[in-house]
C-alpha cells in the first residue's frame, strides 16, 4: 500500500503541474493510519445509526470493495452508487490533501455516504 500511495501522490503532483516528487516528503516515511470497520448484514437498515455523509479526513483513502455494494459519492446534486469492480480499488482524495493544496483551488474533496447492506457482510480497511 505504501508504494501504491506514493505512486498515486506522484500522479496527483504531475496532474497539478508540479514536480512528481513534490509530495514525497509528506508520504514516504510510511506513517499512516489504518482503520478496520465491520458492518454485519442488517435486515432493517432504516433503524441503524451508521456513518452519515462525510468527506474523508485523510490524504488518501484506498478501499477494496470486495464485490459488496454500499458506497455512494455525492455528484453535484445527487448521490451516485459506486459499483464494485472485481480486483479494482477505489481511491478517494481526502480533506488533508485538499487543505495542503488550497491555494491551487483545483481539488474538491468528494462527499461519501456508506449504505447499510441488508444481506452481505461489509468490511472496510481504511
From TrEMBL:
Gene3D superfamilies per record: B-lactam Antibiotic, Isopenicillin N Synthase, Chain (2.60.120.330)
Residues in Fe2OG dioxygenase domain copies: 30-126
InterPro entries named among the record's database cross-references: IPNS-like_FE2OG_OXY, IPNS-like_sf, Oxoglu/Fe-dep_dioxygenase_dom, Plant_2OG-oxidoreductases
Domain of life where this protein originates: Eukaryota
Keywords from the UniProt entry: Iron, Metal-binding
Single Gene Ontology MF annotation: metal ion binding
PANTHER family given in the database record: OXOGLUTARATE/IRON-DEPENDENT DIOXYGENASE (PTHR47991)
Protein name listed in UniProt: Gibberellin 20 oxidase
Annotated organism of origin: Musa troglodytarum
Amino acid at each position: 500500500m505504501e508504494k501504491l500511495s506514493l505512486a498515486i501522490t506522484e500522479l496527483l503532483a504531475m496532474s497539478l503541474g508540479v514536480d512528481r516528487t513534490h509530495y514525497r516528503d509528506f508520504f514516504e516515511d510510511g506513517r499512516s493510519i489504518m482503520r478496520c470497520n465491520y458492518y454485519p448484514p442488517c435486515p432493517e437498515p432504516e433503524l441503524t445509526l451508521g456513518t452519515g455523509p462525510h468527506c474523508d479526513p485523510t490524504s488518501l483513502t484506498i478501499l477494496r470493495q470486495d464485490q459488496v455494494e454500499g458506497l455512494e459519492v455525492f455528484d453535484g446534486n445527487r448521490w451516485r452508487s459506486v459499483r464494485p469492480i472485481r480486483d479494482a480499488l477505489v481511491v478517494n482524495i481526502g480533506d488533508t490533501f485538499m487543505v495542503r493544496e488550497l491555494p491551487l483551488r483545483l481539488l474538491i474533496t468528494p462527499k461519501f455516504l456508506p449504505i447499510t447492506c441488508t444481506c452481505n457482510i461489509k468490511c472496510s480497511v481504511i
